Amino acid sequence: MQPQIAPSKNSYKVAVIGAGASGLVAARELRREDHQVVVFERNNRIGGVWVYDRTIESDPLSIDPSRTIVHTSLYDSLRTNLPREAMGFRDYPFVAKDGKQRDTRRFPGHKEVLHYLEDFTSEFKLSELIRFETEVVHVGLVEEEAEGKWIVRSRGKNIIVEDEEVYDAVVVCNGHNTKPCVAEIPGIDVWPGKQLHSHNYRVPELFSNKVVVLIGSSMSAVDISREIARVAKEVHISSRSVTNKLLTNHFDFNYLWLHSMVKSAHEDGSVVFEDGSSVTADVILHCTGYTYDFPFLDSCSIVNVDDNRVGPLYKHVFPPQLAPSISFIGIPWKVVPFPLYELQSKWVAHILSGKVSLPSQENMMSDVQAFYSKFEADGGPKRYTHNVVDYQFEYYDCLAAQCGVPLPEEWRNQMLFATMMRLVAQPETYRDEWEDENLILQAHEDFAQYIP
Ligand code: FAD
Questions:
Q1: Could you tell me the pTM of the whole model?
Q2: How far, in Å, is the centroid of ligand 1 from the Cα of 43?
Q3: What CA–CA distance (Å, rounded) separates 418 from 436?
Q4: Which of 6, 72, 205, 421 is least enclosed, having the fewest CB within 10 Å?
Q5: CA-proximal residue: ligand 1, atom 34 (nearest)
Q6: Whole-number mean pLDDT of the chain?
Q7: 42 CA to middle of ligand 1, Å?
Q8: Same fold, 13-46+126-179+290-408 and 188-286
Q9: Any long-range contacts for 242-250 (C-beta under 8 Å, 24+ apart)?
Q10: Where does the signal sequence lie (predicted)?
Q11: pLDDT single digits (tens) 111-155
Q12: Which residue's alpha carbon is at the smallest distance from atom 41 of ligand 1?
């Protein structure tokens, strides 16, 4: 991608779906480029997943289509897995603030992240752009329009009649940590125990004295298994990678075992693993991640979710055939989310305003196909298409170069690396013991330009 920064020429009417971290920063960047922005948010406040809710869904596996959806997937004890210096937006640092409600720790609890997003909203006067308690129920192309305008239908809380408006562009920021993926287990229908997905995990008490099989090896799986190991009778972690250091370093806990994948479950309560071992369990906890979901989107089958690949998307943002009138913020995972959303949003806002150009539709499509081919040749499973961990820094640099803003700070990259090393070496203490003081200093020197 070659940057071509030109003067701004377009001002579009843009619908942003969602007022979580990605929708908020998208709204700010779009308004900075003089677009007219409306943010639709079905909750009554900003923050998305960071709005902790003790309520869980009526179906603990979140499969029943008639359930009421609870958006958040946070558990009560959650602290960030990134240090605040690296986690915050680039030009609105996530620095510790004094105040009764504030959490000044370097890896704060979830409430502090919500406070930070509220501060961000207030600083940039974003509330005036947001329609709260308004759910987008349909986004579809205006048929007679060659230019690709969009019909957006939305519905207010307790209001049956839908509102219909036409927008020049739609920026999808609805999050992707709400619709669970659940492991398929032969025999599960006759297995008598209880199952739940980590989306519905809040506190460990439910697991007191229980034998638990926890499937997964993500950061949430690590946190949750450590937490329930304090109250459960036994915790058996089932992971694709039994040599995963994040998990093997767990073994300072009693009653915690590591197994291969679950092979089957049986009527007598046993759960059998692929290595031949088995356990009689009370609960299976699926920490198996989430799937992308755009229930409101009618793109005439141009954009699809297939095995957790949203595609085709040029650079994980624009569907070539519909670009730039619809874009997706926040699709990549294994990233530093907030700065990534900021860069993607700047790119979208600059492209809509005409400051930066996209390649032709054919060239974008060729780029996507080349990416898929290489990804598959490297043995990447389709469901990992948006896992950008191996090239995240190049990806950030590419977006920054497109927008003509400085490349992401070197201290941020190094801090991320130092955090990952600590997480693996000392999962219990990585949030409270560190040695990267020099990087913290560099971060604060950098922040001085943004903090009055
Ligand atoms: P969300 O926060 O999910 O926001 C989406 C918004 O869209 C919601 O407010 C929702 O109500 C709204 N919405 C959805 N559909 C509609 C609709 N049809 N109409 C109107 N509104 C709609 N990130 C970090 O940086 N650090 C961490 O430590 C960290 N820990 C995490 C721990 C857990 C357990 C999870 C699940 C995630 C964690 N994350 C962390 C990632 C986190 O998801 C992102 O940081 C980020 O907050 C996601 O923001 P988002 O705006 O993309 O999505």
A1: 0.95
A2: 12
A3: 7
A4: 205
A5: 74
A6: 94
A7: 13
A8: yes
A9: 242/275, 244/217, 245/424, 246/217, 246/219, 246/222, 246/423, 246/424, 246/427, 247/217, 247/222, 249/424, 249/425, 249/426, 249/427, 250/222, 250/225, 250/226, 250/427
A10: none
A11: 999 999 999 999 999 999 999 999 999 999 998 665 689 999 999
A12: 337
Contacts 24+ apart (CB under 8 A), 110-114: 110/50, 110/52, 110/74, 110/78, 110/79, 110/80, 111/52, 113/50, 113/80, 113/87, 114/47, 114/50, 114/51, 114/52
Q: Which two tokens stand for residue 114?
A: 């919500």
The rounded Å distance from CA 186 to ligand 1 centre is 32
> What's 13-46+126-179+290-408's CATH class?
alpha beta
Please enumerate in sequence order all residues whose Cβ is within 8 A of that of 284, keeping only pairs 6 or more positions apart, or say none: 185, 188, 191, 193, 194, 195, 196, 212, 213, 214, 215, 262, 265, 271
Tokens of 152: 């957006």
> Do residues 358 and 324 make contact, with C-beta atoms less than 8 angstroms apart?
yes
| pLDDT at position 158 | 85
The domain limits of the chain are 13-46+126-179+290-408, 188-286
Closest ligand 1 atom to 40 CA: 20
Q: Which residues line ligand 1 (CB under 6 A)?
A: 17-23, 40-43, 48-50, 71, 73-74, 78, 80-82, 87, 135-136, 173-175, 177, 220, 296, 330, 337-338
Q: What is the DSSP letter of 36?
A: E
Name the one residue in this structure whose structure tokens are 């640099």.
Answer: 397
Q: Which residues of the chain are under the pLDDT cut of 70?
A: 1-8, 144-147, 242-254
Q: How far is the CA of 50 from the centre of ligand 1 (A)?
A: 7
CATH number of this structure's domain 188-286: 3.50.50.60
Residue 167, helix vs strand vs coil:
strand
Mutate to test the pocket of ligand 1, among 174, 331, 336 (most ligand atoms within 8 A of CB): 174
Q: Which amino acid is at 100?
A: K
Euclidean distance between CA atoms 387 and 309, whole angstroms = 10
The rounded Å distance from CA 254 to ligand 1 centre is 34
In this prediction the ipTM stands at: 0.99
The pLDDT value recorded for residue 422 is: 94
Distance, CA of 408 to CA of 312 (rounded, Å): 27
